[in-house]
Amino acid sequence: MKPRIGLDIMGGDRAPSEIIEGALLASKDLDVDIVAFGNESMLKQRLPGFEVVPSGDDLRMDSKPLEVLRKRSSSMHLGLEYLKVGKIDAFVSAGGTGPLFLGSTSILGKLEGIERPALAVPVPSINGFTILIDNGANVAVRPEHLVDFAIMGIAYAKILGKRDPKVGLLNVGEEEIKGTDTVKEAYRLLKDRIGQAFYGNVEGRDINTGVVDVVVTDGFVGNVAMKTMEGVGKLVAAVLKRSVKETGFLSMLGALMMKKAFDRFKRLLDAREYGGAFILGVNGIVVKAHGNSDRLAIKNAVRVAAEGVKMKLLDMIRGEIK
Fold first, then answer.
1. Is residue 82 domain-shared with residue 130, that is, in the same domain?
2. pTM, entire model
């Protein structure tokens, strides 16, 4: 059976138009069934043939987290309720991180053994990818939360093909004595609880070099790191393009000959290709798409959600916790 993916049509800076176009792309390119949550009359017209769940008082991008619990007819709340009772297999939203995170933990509940869920996303590295967790959900954490992140990150990395994932703790230096009290205590706990899977401290430059398979940090630092990588990707692409134009005919000819390689490089650095981040640690598969997602990003967020369903993400995390 095809995965049934719920899509929040009303969430995101470019909603509803780009989200609708993303739904159409996903339906065309992916082997999924999409359930659209949003304005009924608009969706019946623009998404003919799609299953539509009508929503009412929808959330704004600047809505406070608690609004998702108060506005029970919103597209985000309805999508999470459908996921809870098994009417869909996964839910995707580009709406606000705060409401989606609180809604996921409150409506779906947390997995047994996990105190603090987190956002996890694979980012490009020399060895293929590195799981960055947390990516913006938890601004402040306790040391034991970082252990939860490591356990969930290991499970996710295994699903994506890493046989014995190594975990690094993001810090300002490699030495054990470096960092805040929280980070130093997390180092001790990680060393004690996950044993040889713990590599030790890593620095920001190590995220993309493949030193480890999972990088653990709080949501504030993780989100800054992620946004910095996105900016560097745009910088590199722009500098390459400008340099080719400025260095004459031979460079243009060389660029044409390497077009496929440049296209692959561009896709590697394109944040839209990530699709979205799993909210790991909740009792359901939820994908948070970038707030500024366009149609391509939405299609890839649906793809990420479908992969989570097919790879039995929740079962793997439960097994890793045990």
1. no
2. 0.86
